[in-house]
Amino acid sequence: MQVADVAPEVLVVVQSLIVLFVAAPPLVRAIFRLPEARVLEAAK
Which residue numbers in the chain have pLDDT < 50? Predict the structure, then answer.
């Protein structure tokens, strides 16, 4: 992928942030040993 007029360092930072935000929930659960998130069912 090539992008004109953008420094490669900026692209690396943006890609790193995207990966961090995608991986953040499982990482936090693993570090703090939190249970999996549960989905509440709608009240009937």
Answer: none
